[in-house]
Amino acid sequence: MPNPDDLPALDRRDPESAIADAARRFSNWGKWGEQDAVGTMNYITDDHRARAAALAKTGKTFSLSLLFDADGPQTGWRGRINPVHTMTATGVDAVHVGQGFPHGIGGADDFITMPLQAGTQWDGLGHIFDRGMAWNGRDAAKVVTSDGDQVTGIEHQAARIVARGVLLDVGRRFGDDGELPDGFAIMQAHLEQTIEAQGPTAEVRGGDIVLVRTGRLARARREGWNGYAGGPAAGLSFTTAGWLFRTEIAAIATDTWGFEVRPNEFDDAFQPLHQIVIPNLGLTVGEMWDLDSLAEDCAADGTYEFFLVAAPIPFTKAVGAPVNPIAVK
Prior knowledge:
The protein has 329 residues and is of the alpha/beta class. It folds into two domains: 273 residues, Putative cyclase (Glucose Oxidase, domain 1); 31 residues, no CATH class. Helices cover 24% and strands 19% of the residues. It contains ten helices and 17 strands. The strands form five sheets. A nine-stranded mixed sheet has the order 1-17-15-9-11-13-14-4-16, with helices on both faces. Strands 2-3 form a two-stranded antiparallel sheet. The chain has a two-stranded antiparallel ribbon with strand order 5-6. A hairpin with a 3-residue loop joins β5 and β6. The longest helix has 11 residues. The radius of gyration is 21 Å and the shape is globular. The mean pLDDT is 96.
């Protein structure tokens, strides 16, 4: 396995070389065959799920999702708006207008208009490309067309994302009052020291889903969304690509809009860690997860592992999808 410490020191002026080098070192192309559509989710085996289910000892549950409503974090960037909820039938209709049903029965119906990545969500494997290539070395132009993701659509993940979850509360370990400052690059050393401080239940194993709390969402709740969506935030350093590769985790999620540190560590790059982990590692990435209540409970009982069910809504050929992750302790 490549050692992440072998990566040269980052040159802020040369993202192109750093991205190309990391893509070469940390590629899983072909590991699960030419037809693979789920990438590192292959690390979650049936045995892993069975062991993970045994972690549900108290039955206590935590929803790790933001509320999906018009008061969400989106700003309209690249067409991403907050959900628009419309009622097509109401109790007012039933009581005052009549709905044409016999014997007094009435009802309500509604629909939602929203981007699939408006709130708590998974980035699918068709969401990001690296120099024209999609996951597993495929031509991006042939994988994702105007008809959607023809190969790695999020529907392939519908029954897979059930696993052992591990919370790494980096915000509590290294931040003031549990919150990291914007632009704080979480290095491999920060992750490892958090694991050590939290104890044995925070050990990261192959097939796990790792949740990294920065505290950014807690600040947004206190101060308002402001730049939460697309603005500065703490996040994973580009240099953690090797750790993400070597640990063989199935997925990673954070309480931020972008998962990686913003501004990033190069003078001219956009989401460079995404460019490595999604199309090259085949790693599914979760964003805007609400980890605060779970973190409080983990700190209180000293247990940082749990049974995690985080299936995306299986929109066919979608490159991302909303999710209501449930952690069970």
